[in-house]
Amino acid sequence: MAKNRTTPKLENDYENEYAADGGELHQFASAEKNELTTNQGLPVGDDQNSLKAGARGPVLLEDFHLREKITHFDHERIPERVVHARGYGAHGVFHAYAGNEDLTKADFLCDSKAKTLVFCRFSTVAGSEGSFDTARDVRGFSTKFYTRQGNYDLVGNNIPVFFIQDAIKFPDLIHAVKPEPDRGFPQAQSAHDTFWDFVSLTPESVHMLMWVMSDRAIPRSFRMMQGFGVNTYRMVNRAGKSKLVKFHWRPKLGTFSLIWDEAVVIAGADPDFHRRDLWNAIQAGDFPEWELSVQAVDEKQADKLDFDILDATKIIPEEVVPLRPLGKMVLNRMPDNFFAETEQVAFCPANLVPGIDFSEDPLLQGRLFSYLDTQLSRLGSPNFQEIPINAPKCPWQNLQRDGHMRMRVDPARTSYEPNSLDMNAPREAGAEGFQSISIPTEDAKLRQRPESFADHYSQALQFFKSLTEPEQRHVVGGFAFELGKCREVKIRRRMLGHLNNVDPTLSQLVADKLGMAGEAEKIKPPVAANTRIKPSPALSQYGAAPQTIAGKKIGLLATDGSDAKLIETIIKRAKAEKATVEIVAPKAGGFTGNDSKVHPADHFLAGAPSALFDAVVLMPSAEGTEELLKMACAVDWLRMAFAHLKIIGYTREAEPLFTAAQVDTEADEGIVRIEGTKVGSFIEVAKRHRIWEREDKVRQWIHY
Fold first, then answer.
1. Is 84 a catalytic residue?
2. What is the pTM of this model?
3. What is the DSSP letter of 612?
């Protein structure tokens, strides 16, 4: 056997059994050479690529290695989802805009008078069901449309690209990011050796890593998060003409994120931060809304792009192909039962309606198999579609019968077709039914990546170029933090080499933070980054962020004797801007205002750090300030708000707290004194979201 290698223990130990019969043990070549094999012992010649009809062709069902690998992966967790285990969902409606018929014949996208019911589930990817909401991670963004032509599932993420180009590598990716199997940690984190070992050996991951190390991976809320279909799909109109499309969800409230230290504080103070935010908003009637758009190109346009549209590690810049709005989604109702709906909902990208079809994207092709197989394992029955949350709202009938947990009673004599015994049995819909688009292919079957998939660095550079200076600093900080958690120095050096291929300055900045200047491993790129690539402003969250506090939350610190009338004014002004105010008091019982009335508190101070709010107001009475100065959590509340770049409003009585926190009330425009009942200036400044210019002053206080 190969040296320095642990042989797995088997229940039926072949070596012992064979030796007991007096036979001579045969040394297999695959074991001697440490070769990868299938579960049947067949040496694997290529573990990087699915078997396709041509380099850019569809994946073949014949690929037994792909099916074995993904099937085993899909069945590794019971009953929790292997990925996207921690999720939260809501019901809603989708309304199509008029004029989409030239693009698709999908009924729910063409009938602008129709109301299509939806269920949307948001999730983290790496963590378990019991992990925390604000982990640095990709977020799932999946929508089930209950259309008149059957259920359509748009299964996507909040980042438009992915780590890998071929689905055969998905089990490896998730094995690498999950808790390391010999120790069972870290939970819901990619900051460890196995993840960075894998991605540093997988150059196609570099573009996705740029997104995951950015603020995009720590969204402010589900309501302020974009969604993307990730893969390339097709749309087909009634004339049979098709276009390749990329799906986009854009939140009405704008796209906002947390900063890293803020996310860490929130994870401890409120692990359910995103869940609670969505629940509270919908219960208050503040229904979140997204616009669904596509980027659509025909085959000739696709061929002229600088990248391969079938490559899931690439985007189409909006400056090249603008977004075309199709309709809007409003989430307006929470589930009646979390388990029955959010946990049992089963999404699958293979759930289509006429007018939408697949591309030959090899990542998508593997997903079409994997999702169904996962649901069969997790929900335990081929009849999982009969669970109410998964069942179509339109009539459905077919000739599938029986199976575990079958609920439907089919009284017909026949369960096959064609048949001549039951003329009422369901028949093929013909031209009105789903018709797969005809894509000719005559290529040889092979395991190979097309050369058009080989540029792993140009779009990563474009992403970095497109960010504002604070966003770029956060990317650097993200890489430095995560790589700093890797104990293997060779992994750090390898990743620095990849970053050097993206942008030498980026690599140098990360290396400086790691104390590894000049140690980047030289990695020869298959295709050098296009250094002339132009920025795409749409990739930045804050380059043109909306000036609004709609959907935001203001934390107001009050004590006994606080000005009740002023507090009421702030609450009314915030409500007029569609924001909310939550009262924080020293004790959970509330406070007695200067009107001698007891006012309830939403939070007690020690349990509600200022990280939970988008902006803060300090309104203690003079006597209350004296008491607050005796509480470390009160001084920290202000100091943390300043460090997290928040807009801070205050009254004159709160000034001693600023002195104790070593925060200058004249530090910047984000610190606003509220005089009398005039709160308009504070509200206007709060629309800036953060004071990014303050970051240089506080960088030594916390990690960015």
1. yes
2. 0.91
3. G
